Amino acid sequence: MTASPSGRPTSITITLRVNGAERKLTIPPWTTLLDALRERLNLTGTKKGCDHGQCGACTVLIEGRRVNSCLTLAVMKDGAKITTIEGLATREALHPLQQAFIDHDAFQCGYCTPGQICSAAGLIAEGKAKTAEEIRELMSGNVCRCGAYPNIVAAIQQAMGAMGGEP
Amino acid sequence: MINFEYTKATSVADAVRQVAADPNAKFIAGGTNLIDLMKYNVSHPARLIDITQLPLKTVEETADGGVRIGALVPNSDLAYHPLIEKRYPIVSSAILAGASQQLRNMASTGGNLVQRTRCFYFYDATTPCNKREPGSGCSAREGINRINAILGTSESCIATHPSDMCVALAALEAKVRVVGPDGERIIAFADFHRLPGNTPQIDTNLKHDEIIVAIELPPKGFAANHSYLKIRDRLSYAFALVSVAAALEFDGGRIKEARLALGGVAHKPWRDPQAEAALRGQAPGRDTFAKAADVLLKDAKGFGHKDFKIDLARRAVVRTLTQAANGTPQIQSQKKIR
User: Fold this and answer.
1) Residue A148 contacts residue A108 (beta carbons within 8 Å)
2) Which of A57, A69, B130, B335 could, after both became Cys, cross-link A34 (CB 3.0–4.6 A)?
3) Are B15 and B211 in contact (CB under 8 A)?
């Protein structure tokens, strides 16, 4: 299982800084960041939807930038700062985006929600979306099978206001 | 996913050395296309060489007045770079028309050029495909082929190159700087991608032992009169059925210089010098633009499922040239076609 095509063992030890904690793990190079988070670090908030970069359910922030963790090799992110849905709230309060998603009923089944919220956090940090139209376009990498889109846009607009553009 | 060995390249020379020593090795940067292809068992490199530590991450002005883009600059950083937004807005626009922000954050400039077709049959390892398995046949010719090519096709392949950015780079006549065991060479953008012919498994003229280090933009960016219009099955986050990059330069009310490139219709961004010649010296207007579109599409073939693409392309060319001439380029977040 951890032998390469040449027969040599290939597991590699890396450190990820996940939600503020240093996590050391030894993994084969073909482990995606998504699988490392879910299967090795038991952080199952990040969801596996299509596993091909088409749905956005696996969105996490690497060094504050939103990416698809299903198309990221964990070994290529040695030392990186990763933020998942589990890392957004503080002990005292929900993240403004989490609160806004509740306030606006911005989900039904909730499966896409962690990806939507992490993506929205990345979007707010980027500062490129001001109008609803721009939010829709720049959130197009997150698909919601329940079709909660209007409420998702409203939630992001609320959080943007609450956060004053700060991530 | 398939198993593979993983190594890091410490310099461009080291990257070239490593890839030259292993015919089954591939470079990995953003990985957005390669990892996907590996999950579908379409690509199976025995070794991935991680090039993300190489110093190819800057966008800078060159002595000749152009701009040099490092091969590892992420697509999103390039689209929002002040130099690109101001001087080459058609490049920004084309990038923002493609993929999602997550993917653009990951994908590299060099990787964008060497991404592979999204032909359904290329991705489906259970069907014949000459690009995936040379000699096995083409399932797309008689299959579901609305996303496939109408120009420059061959008996063996009707795949398209899926990039939006490359359509703009073709229109601007960018250059691709590559390094191999014998040193550097520059490939004109028109010579980088190939037509399928009877070797559709070979997408580009980049050799196995070469690495893209930069894309160079010439001084002329057509910032005043340009547009990138992408027509697709849904309004965001989909590959093009047809896309058009149009760039014009005027002199006294007449077109002095014209660039016109199509995406989603061929194995490479599609240009025709005769179509651009048909625009030069003319006053802008619907008839002039329609004539250029006719020249550009004169050899188009629809294969049934995509007959509509010929007419769609013709209308999109006229519309995009009109946007460029009026100085009202398509804005990618605005879904109404201007």
Assistant:
1) yes
2) A69
3) yes
Question: Which strands make up the sheet holding B211-217, listed edge to edge?
Answer: B59-61, B67-70, B211-217, B175-180, B183-188
Q: Is the pLDDT confidence value at B200 over 90?
A: yes
pLDDT tens by residue, B249-305: 999 999 999 999 999 999 999 999 999 999 999 999 999 999 999 999 999 999 888
Q: Evaluate if residue A2 carries a pLDDT over 60.
A: no
Locate the chain B residue with the closest alpha carbon to A65.
B105
ipTM: 0.96
Spatial contact of B88 and B67, defined as CB atoms under 8 Å apart = yes
Domain count, chain A: 2
Domain at A115, CATH number: 1.10.150.120
pTM for the full predicted model: 0.97
Which burial class, exposed, middle or buried, applies to B23 when counting CB atoms under 10 A from its CB (0-12, 13-18, 19+)? exposed
Q: What are phi and psi of A3, to 5 degrees?
A: -110, 140
pLDDT exceeds cutoff 70 at A104: yes
- Final residue in a domain of this structure, among A43, A62, A87: A87
- Which residue(s) pair with B179 in the sheet? B184, B211
Smallest Cα distance from B36 to chain A, Å: 6
Å between B155 CA and nearest CA of chain A: 30
Look-up: residue for tokens 């846009």?
A: A153
* Angle between helix B286-296 and helix B307-326 axes, rounded to 10 deg: 140
Q: Cβ contacts (< 8 Å) between A56 and chain B: which residues?
A: 100, 102
Residues of B with CB under 8 A from a CB of A: 1-6, 24, 28, 31-32, 35-36, 38-40, 46-48, 50, 52, 76, 80, 99-103, 105-106, 236-237, 332-335
- The predicted pLDDT at position A1 comes to 46
Pick the CATH number of B5-52 from 3.30.43.10, 2.70.70.10, 1.10.3730.10, 3.10.560.10: 3.30.43.10
Q: Do B39 and A52 touch (CB under 8 A)?
A: yes
Q: Are residues A79 and A102 in the same domain?
A: no
Burial label, B273 (beta-carbon count in 10 A; 0-12, 13-18, 19+) = exposed
A16 SS3 class: strand
pLDDT tens digits, one per residue of A105-144: 999 999 999 999 999 999 999 999 999 999 999 999 999 9
Instruction: Give the sign of the dihedral formed by CA A19, CA A20, CA A21, CA A23.
Output: positive
Q: Which CATH superfamily is domain B226-326 in?
A: CO dehydrogenase flavoprotein, C-terminal domain (3.30.390.50)
